[in-house]
Design a protein that fits this description.
The chain has helices at about 1-40, 60-65, 155-165, and strands at about 70-80, 95, 100-105, 115-120, 125-130, 135-140, 170-175, 180-190. It is an alpha+beta fold and about 210 residues long. The protein folds into two domains: about 1-45; about 70-190, Sandwich (Immunoglobulin-like).
Length: about 210
């Protein structure tokens, strides 16, 4: 009987030891899970670095893309004397171009197929204003640039000059992150048949 009691005591001690070890293992496991969970909860996504551009630009990129900025300026005109009766200084005076049609195109090259953003007219003071998103735009004030290019009967040098002038906007507007103001362009009223490359064509002067 004494042997059985000793074996029973040993079994009880072993049982207690096993329970204790299992309980310690469970406690350690719980601690590990809690630590992982704590680290995950404290991650700040806003402070994570990116390879493309600084985090500060993320917050304003939508605002920049959707922002509209006012563009304003004035269209003027002046005449060229084409001969005949002599004229005084008043004839050459630069004046506001009232109710002048102007076109706004996308990009820096005028062509038959360029995308036109808007069409507007100047007020009683020759002024204009409109709003666009950031980008590069061209303003077309010359009448002959607002329609399909028409090849005149002229020498080759003049034709090449006209083609080059046709592609160039009268005002190039670069919009970044603020309004653009005080733009100005003066339209030249040529003699009949005259043009920017040969302004005296058609003039009848002594």
């Amino acid at each position: 009987m004494g042997k059985f009691k000793k074996i029973e005591k040993i079994n009880i001690l072993l049982y207690i030891l096993i329970i204790t070890l299992l309980s310690l293992g469970c406690n350690n496991q719980n601690i590990n899970v809690k630590q992982v969970s704590t680290k995950t909860d404290t991650i700040d996504i806003k402070n994570q670095k990116t390879d493309n551009f600084p985090q500060s630009e993320f917050d304003s990129i939508d605002a920049k893309t959707n922002a509209m900025y006012q563009i304003s300026g004035k269209i003027l005109y002046k005449k060229i004397w084409c001969g005949g009766v002599q004229v005084g200084p008043e004839f050459y005076k630069i004046r506001p171009f009232i109710n002048k049609k102007i076109l706004i195109i996308n990009g820096s090259i005028n062509s038959d197929t360029c995308r036109r953003i808007t069409e507007l007219r100047t007020n009683a003071k020759g002024e204009f204003n409109f709003e666009v998103k950031p980008g590069l735009y061209g303003l077309i004030a010359e009448n002959w640039k607002q329609v399909k290019f028409k090849q005149p009967v002229c020498e080759s040098w003049e034709l090449a000059c006209l083609r080059k002038a046709y592609k160039k906007p009268d005002i190039l507007i670069r919009v970044t992150d603020k309004p653009v103001s005080k733009l100005s362009y003066t339209v030249i009223v040529y003699c009949s048949g005259g043009n920017p490359c040969n302004p005296l064509r058609g003039a009848d002067r002594p």
